[in-house]
Design brief:
The protein has about 375 residues and is mainly beta. It has a domain of about 130 residues. Helix content is about 5%, strand content about 50%. The chain contains 2 helices and 30 strands. The strands form 7 sheets. Strands 1, 27, 28, 29 and 30 form a 5-stranded antiparallel sheet that branches. Strands 14, 15, 16, 17 and 18 form a 5-stranded antiparallel sheet that branches. The two termini are about 40 Å apart. The relative contact order is 0.14.
Amino acid sequence: MMLKNIVLTGLVFLCFVTDILCSNYVVYDLGTLSSEDRFTANQINDQGQILGGYSSYDGKESGFFVWDSKDGFSIEIRERAGAYINNLGEVVGIAYGKKSNNIYTWDKNLGFQYIKIPDGMSNVHIRGFNDQGHILISFQPKGIARMISGLYRNGSWEIIDEYSLIWNLLKEQGENTITSVIVTKINNGTIAGIYGYGKLNVHLNKFIEIGKKPFCWDGNTEAISIPVSVDTHNPSTLIEIIGLNNNGDIYFCCGEEIINDSGRYESVRNMWMWNKKENKALPNNALNNFSTNLCCNTLTDNLMLIVTSITGCQRSYLYYEDELVLLEDLLGITQTSPFSGSYGFDSLDHDQFSINNSGQIVGNGKIWGKSHPFIAIPNRD
C-alpha cells in the first residue's frame, strides 16, 4: 500500500488563545492515501496529533491513522478505528476478531497493548480516555436490560453505578431515589454524567423516573449534583453532556420535541454551562438549537466550543467569549478560494470537528466528492 506522507516542516504547535477570533488561520489539506481511499479526521490533542479513521477503496482494509507534523501518517489496519487519543499520543479502541473481548491501547513506541473486558459485559462503548490512561466505558451486564458504566484505572476495572454515587446524590433528592446513572465524559480530574431520580409507584411496584440531573465526580470523593433539573415526564426530553474541560467546567444541553404553531414537531435544544469553581449553572441562550459531535474534543479549557446549527441550513461556528463566528469565515474557506495551494474545497463536513487548547481545528471537507481531512492553525504573524 502506497503511503502519501505529508509532513509540515517547521510547523510549531504553540499558539495563544487571547485573540483567537481575530486570527487568520492557515489551513493545511492532509490529502488522501490514494485517489480512492477514504480517511476522516476525528480528533486533535494538545500536541497537534490527529486521530482519524481509514478505509481502503476496495473495503478490504480499515483501521485508524495518527498524524503529526513531524512524522506525517501512521496507519494501523490490524484494529478498527480508535475511539479517543489523549495528550500523550495514546489511542484507545475496541478490538475485534480473535481479541473481540479486549480493549486496545496503542502508541508509536509500544504498538498495541490489550486489556481484557471482564466476563458478563456486552455492548461495550468507550466514553472517554485521559492522560493517566483511565478508560471510561458503558456496557450492558449479562441479564440486565439497562446500560451501566465502568472505569479502568490502576490496572483494574471498577463499576460505576447507583451505589457508587447514591449517598451524596440522594441527599439532594430528599424522598426520591436514584433510578439510573450513566457516565459520558472523563478528563484528567473529573468524570461527568447524567443521573435519573424518581419515586416508588406502589401500584406498579417499581420506581418511576421523574427527572434527570447532570453530575460531576472526581472518582474518589462524593459526587456533585449540578443544580439544573430536567422534567422527564415528557418521554421526548433528553439531556446530554456536550463538553468537559480540564477545569471541570461542563457544557450540557436539555432538549425535547415540541409541537410548533404549524402543528409540526420541532426539536428544541437549550444549552447550559456549569462553572465548577462557582457551582453555578447558567443558560447560554446564544447556543440554543446548536449541537456538537459528542465523541470529539468539544470544550477547551478557556471555553472555546465548536457547534453546528440544527435548524435551517447546517452551518458550523466557533463559539468563544460570547461570540459566534462562522467556521468558513474564520478559516477563510470558500468554494472558490485556494486550499493549501492547489486544492479548493466544495464543502465542509459539518458533523466532525475537533479543537484543542491552542485553537487548532481539525475537520473534513469535500473535493470532487472525496473527503479530505485538514488541520487549521491560528496564524499570528
